[in-house]
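Reminder to self: tokens first, then the designed residues, so the page reads top to bottom the way the pipeline ran.
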């Protein structure tokens, strides 16, 4: 019997990158997976990948910064599969790189709306359901940028520090109710987001691997699957004493 047989897992932003790898891993471990994204085609592709591998999945569109869509997402997951056991609040954006004094209000608002408020709205909807159902697990996607600063990324850094704060608070408020909330802090991971950051930082002169590999003590950036492994473990019955943990998965980045 697989570890998540009979369980339902919801992953926001699972049309690509870390979210997609997490959805695939949950499905491979037996979960019924609710794939959600603002990009319908990308999300449906993830569902097709899961179906091709013999897993169970459905797609539901939701913009995590919209409270009504987030509430409908949790309700839809429960309607379809009868329960929600694990949630991963992964959807996020990187925005544009500029020193703080040159950042625009629009960039700040967009990043905070999706990364910080989006995580907050997802936590609310998931916790409201899990309080009724008797518990569950939630993993938030923070970042090494939630632990330390990165010049040029002040709104993103602020949003990820916020994710860490709300992870700790939710853990303290709901641990006794059987809801385990934790966060992961990836270093540079080989996805579209890192490509965008590298391309902005080097004006297209370097790939994310060329720019970021040497900055990691392991000598390379990570894969989405290496983050998915940690997320799924934190969501599993092997991690029942993990609560309010902020776990780096970063090739040694914050050990420096
Ligand atoms: P990505 O850009 O490859 O994928 C993000 C997904 O989120 C996309 O499918 C996108 O359509 C979706 N999305 C964006 N806005 C959304 C919204 N409002 N509602 C729903 N879905 C939305 O990014 P990724 O690298 O896989 O990042 C996933 C998470 O991991 C993010 O929270 C990111 O901040 C975090 N992270 C990434 C890295 C990295 O190096 N890639 C490092 C640390 C943390």
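Designed residues (256 positions):
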């Amino acid at each position: 019997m697989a570890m998540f047989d009979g369980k339902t897992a919801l992953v926001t932003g699972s049309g690509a990158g870390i979210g997609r790898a997490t959805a695939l891993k949950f499905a491979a471990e037996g979960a019924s997976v609710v794939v959600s994204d603002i990009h319908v085609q990308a999300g449906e592709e993830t569902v097709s990948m899961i179906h091709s591998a013999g897993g169970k999945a459905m797609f539901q569109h939701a913009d995590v910064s919209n409270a009504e869509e987030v509430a409908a997402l949790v309700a839809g997951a429960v309607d379809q599969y009868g329960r929600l056991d694990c949630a991963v609040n992964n959807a996020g954006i990187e925005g544009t790189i500029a020193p703080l004094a040159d950042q625009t209000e629009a960039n700040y608002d967009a990043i905070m709306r999706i990364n910080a408020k989006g995580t907050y709205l997802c936590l609310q909807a998931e916790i409201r359901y899990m309080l009724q159902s008797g518990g569950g697990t939630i993993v938030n996607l923070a970042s090494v940028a939630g632990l330390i600063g990165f010049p040029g990324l002040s709104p993103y850094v602020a949003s990820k520090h916020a994710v860490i704060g709300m992870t700790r608070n939710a853990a303290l408020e709901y641990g006794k109710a059987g809801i385990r909330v934790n966060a992961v802090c990836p270093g540079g991971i080989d996805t579209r987001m890192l490509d965008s950051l590298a391309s902005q930082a080097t004006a297209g002169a370097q790939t994310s691997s060329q720019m970021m590999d040497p900055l990691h003590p392991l000598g390379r950036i990570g894969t989405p699957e290496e983050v998915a492994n940690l997320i799924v473990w934190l969501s599993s019955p092997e991690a029942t004493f993990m609560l309010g943990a902020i776990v780096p998965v970063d090739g040694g980045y914050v050990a420096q």
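The helical segments are 17-28, 40-52, 67-81, 105-133, 154-174, 192-202, 208-212, 224-234.
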